[in-house]
Sequence to fold (195 residues):
Amino acid sequence: QPIPGPFTEEFSVLAQKHGIHIIMGTLVEQAAGEFYNTSVLLNNCGRIVGKYRKIKLWNGEKEYITPGMELPVFETELGRIGLLICWDLAFPELAKDLALHGAQLIFCPSYWLYGDKYGMLASNERCRRVPPLDTESIFVNTCIQARAIENEALCVYINGWGGVNLEGYGDRLIGRTQIAAPFYGTVTRAGDRQE
Fold:
């Protein structure tokens, strides 16, 4: 849907009602015949402060999503906010660009699955050959701390948890929502459940 649109309107009402800033997870934005994986920042009055279109697309996204081209930093009463989305976290240069443009807080909403290490088309045989390490959680935990320390910015990773079924492909989201601070690393972290 477009931005603004039905989803942003719904969250705008919530932001205004509760007097809070909201970073919407992500939604598929349609604009000028293209589709983008987009996150939206709303202020505590429910106004859209800005949006970010994901730059580094993950495997299947490349089939139907157009990558974004800009890394905006938004001025808010909470500080200067930069946004990344999911797989963007793996690329230090993106967070560095946000920091160089003054971002003090970097938020990264995500939809990270345990099975991402295998890919959506993984065979049972391939899954049996891969060691049973929780590589996805290790990767996310390491990257979010590194981005905070490298850029002297507070970094917040937000991810879903629980089971998902995508057209017959079953998996679980890794959770691991967390806050990392410069010179400290992770301040607090949720596990793979709601908390």
Observations:
- The chain has a mean pLDDT of 92.
- Helices lie at 6-18, 92-100, 124-129, 135-151.
- The first strand starts at residue 22 and ends at 23.
- The longest helix spans residues 135-151.
